Amino acid sequence: MEVESMQEVPYFGQFESRALIGDFITGKRNPADDPLWELSGATDQAEYARWCDHICGMACLKMALAHLQDRIIPTMDLMKQCREYGGYVVHEDGTIKGLIYRPFISFVSEQFSLQAELKEHTPIEEIYDLLDRGYVYIASVHPSIRKPDAVPPKQGGHLVYVFGKDEQTRELLFHNPSGDTPQTQENVRMSLGNFSRFYAGRGILIKGR
């Protein structure tokens, strides 16, 4: 994807009030107090607060659908549909497991006709080479990717939407649904080397337009 087109990729956070994401992830504010919670499609504030920490993948899917199909579906609506496929599992103790990739791939294939493929043990350089061939990538990274100079304790645990590249600088272009500033949320640029420090070597490759 050409750099000039990156502004055309819509951004959505996993919390509805993107200006408050930093407060939510640090615990300074309770997500139940998000003034825009109803836009998520949640039944009530309690449901929203319970799930918004777990739906980075649904925020990425929301961005992909807006980007590739010009359709916008609330994140909680996407989560509930994905859960029917087994993409999320709620255990008896209330803990939430997900996003589970293979059921997610079945979900997006059947519901949105997206050609999606699970990538495992895949260097980010391999994904980089596909980004100008009509592909986008939901990549598993450590959430501390919002602080590029951080040393992550592990790789993975969060998902970001990778949609383009700058061939002159060999940088990836992506949206981070839990970025805590405008600069770490939308049209983030990062070198392959830096990205690799956070990247778990896995994700979901999606054929775009």
Q: Would you kindly provide a written description of the structure presented here, covering whatever features stand out?
A:
This protein has 209 residues and is an alpha+beta fold. The model is unreliable at 1-6 (pLDDT under 50). A six-stranded antiparallel beta sheet has the order 3-8-4-5-6-7. It has a two-stranded antiparallel ribbon with strand order 1-2. The chain contains eight helices and eight strands; from the N terminus they run H-H-H-H-E-E-H-E-H-E-E-E-H-E-H-E. The chain has helices at 21-26, 45-51, 56-69, 75-84, 101-112, 124-128, 182-185, 192-198, and strands at 89-90, 96-97, 116-119, 135-141, 158-166, 171-175, 188-191, 199-207. The chain has one domain (3-207): Cysteine proteinases (Cathepsin B, Chain A, Alpha-Beta Complex), CATH 3.90.70.
Q: Please give the largest β-sheet.
A: 6 strands, antiparallel
The global form is globular
Number of helices: 8
Helical fraction: 25-40%
Number of strands: 8
Distance between the termini: 11 Å
Q: Per CATH, which architecture? A: Alpha-Beta Complex
- Enter the CATH topology name: Cathepsin B, Chain A
**The CATH homologous superfamily:** Cysteine proteinases
Order of helices and strands: HHHHEEHEHEEEHEHE
Level-1 CATH class name: Alpha Beta
Main structural class: alpha+beta
Strand arrangement, major sheet: 3-8-4-5-6-7
Note the beta-strand portion: 15-25%
Number of domains: 1
Q: Which oligomerization state do the chains in this entry correspond to? A: single chain
Protein name: Peptidase C39-like domain-containing protein
Pfam family, one: Peptidase_C39_2
Organism: Brevibacillus panacihumi W25
